[in-house]
């Protein structure tokens, strides 16, 4: 539309006032134009699109010259029309002194991620990327007297953000607004009580450089004094408003941090899988210093103080399997696993039944031993000692190691300080890599997913052996899966007669 009687900014502002007056969206088109605005997509439709679709809209045909419709034509009721605040008379550091809402600048920067849907976000994002270049702002700052040494909060009048959204809407034919309900408080924060500190004027900015060059002042002694002299009720209201400034991007910050943590965990899991495959010689020739895998599982009594009643240890020397084909799920390597089952003598008559069904008497892979509790750590060290003397590289293996490490600490053994320990493998994490994500699964579920039968779980000795078997299976199957992907073929888990016979 051409510039006519009014400048474009004045026209947009008055159009916005008309929309507020009517409580409906108003769109303008030239009288000879029959082009309709594009209909919003109903796929993944954001709330701003639904709001635009469901609300009645006035379309006003007008010639190219700007015409401001008379609100009286649309009803007899009178409406209060707010006049845009003028900050040209304010000097740097002067308090705002007006009863109008402010919007945290951080909330504006976070708006696309928090409140624009997938359909409109790519369209609107460029406007936010150049928000300082294409729009003028009046910046204010506000210190928290309770934290005088922290940087102040940066604010702009909410009205200016609404004008910005209106300009984006006019360009794109969409209906971005400040969200309703509780989220509106993030963008409309009042500081109307003159008895407490007010936002102070910083500068008028028309480009990014001017804001970058601005220096945020230190807290005013007057503001500190005002806060100290205010009543408790006045201070409480002020503190609540300041807390909204601090929380204005809280939800998006938490979401982004959670996503980043999940991404880093996924990277760590994939690196763990790559190390495991390398240790086993699956991705590259194993070095002369092949590691020794020390698999462990601990069982504790269900009742407090949760004394350790069983320790299972399963050892696989990677040097012994060099040159041996792994077979399905690494089953050709399973006969090389050495198994140990230690039952604390004092608790050998106790069996867990409340949360899991224990079976301490059903060790599948040899004979159990019964050291007294004061010699439990000594017996564990004796099993590992030959590999320590050989100065072998030891890798600790467990299924979700947190509990096992905690119980080892209870009995006085810090496995991470054991001589030769140089790494840790979590079969729960390996399983998540093999499954391309998904929630963590129990050992029995992992074995089931791999097609591996298991008997007498929750016996520490058995669980330690099954954990090491699961490690080999996941590493071998992930290698097969990667090979299939490189060839462009579908991967599926295959069973052989030899694999089935490995359980007998």
TrEMBL record:
Which superkingdom heads the taxonomic lineage of this protein's source?
A: Eukaryota
Stretch list, region Disordered = 29-61
Q: Which GO terms describe its cellular component?
A: nucleus
Ranges for domain Gfd2/YDR514C-like C-terminal: 292-473
Q: Which Pfam families match?
A: DEDDh_C (PF21762)
Output the Gene Ontology terms for molecular function.
Answer: nucleic acid binding
User: What is this protein's name?
Assistant: Gfd2/YDR514C-like C-terminal domain-containing protein
